[in-house]
């Protein structure tokens, strides 16, 4: 089974990215054969900016992305959204790839389930 998780909100300010990645991590833990694909769009592209420094005891989106990647998940970030925010040249967290709508379209038709946050 393939699951696509689309994230649209910034990493902090709401808990949408946090909850999306919590779901991804739980799926990987409880169903290790499921392929998890995460696509970052709109303000969520900033989830992939490296070296996030959050207060002690506060969730860290970069660490959560790395956990998803470490368990075989794929994380891609919308190149157009990066361009719109002027951060395309910023190096993304290790393992996160710059992508496009064609690839998102392909992931969508291949997915058995799609979740949006």
What structural keywords apply?
single chain; 117 residues; alpha/beta; Hypothetical Protein Ychn, Chain: A; 4 helices; 5 strands
What does this structure look like?
With 117 residues, this protein is of the alpha/beta class. The protein has one domain (2-116): Hypothetical Protein Ychn, Chain: A (3-Layer(aba) Sandwich), CATH 3.40.1260. Helix content is 35%, strand content 21%. It contains 4 helices and 5 strands, in the order βαβαβαβαβ. It has helices spanning 16-30, 61-70, 79-84, 101-110, and strands at 2-7, 35-40, 74-78, 96-99, 113-116. A 5-stranded parallel β-sheet has the order 4-3-2-1-5, with helices on both faces. Helix 1 runs parallel beside helix 2 (61-70). The chain is globular and about 35 Å long. The model has no long low-confidence stretch (mean pLDDT 97).
Summarize the structure.
With 117 residues, the chain is an alpha/beta fold. The chain is 35% helix and 21% strand.
Architecture per CATH nomenclature, i.e. the level-2 architecture? 3-Layer(aba) Sandwich
Q: Structurally, how many domains make up the residues?
A: 1
Euclidean distance between termini CA atoms: 20 Å
CATH class: Alpha Beta
Oligomer: single chain
CATH homology-level superfamily: DsrEFH-like
Shape: globular
Strand order of the largest sheet: 4-3-2-1-5
CATH topology value:
Hypothetical Protein Ychn, Chain: A
Map the helices and strands:
Blueprint: E1 2-7, H1 16-30, E2 35-40, H2 61-70, E3 74-78, H3 79-84, E4 96-99, H4 101-110, E5 113-116
Parallel strand pairs: 1-2, 1-5, 2-3, 3-4
């Amino acid at each position: 089974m393939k699951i696509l998780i689309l994230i649209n909100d910034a990493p902090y300010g709401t808990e949408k990215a946090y909850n999306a990645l919590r779901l991804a991590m739980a799926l990987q833990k409880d169903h290790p054969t499921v392929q998890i694909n995460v696509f970052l769009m709109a303000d969520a592209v900033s989830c992939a900016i490296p070296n996030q420094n959050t207060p002690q005891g506060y969730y860290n989106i970069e660490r959560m992305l790395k956990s998803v990647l470490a368990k075989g998940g794929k994380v891609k970030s919308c190149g157009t959204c990066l361009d719109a925010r002027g951060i395309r040249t910023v190096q993304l967290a290790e393992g996160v790839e710059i992508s496009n709508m064609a690839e998102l379209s392909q992931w969508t038709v291949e997915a058995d389930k799609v979740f949006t946050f």
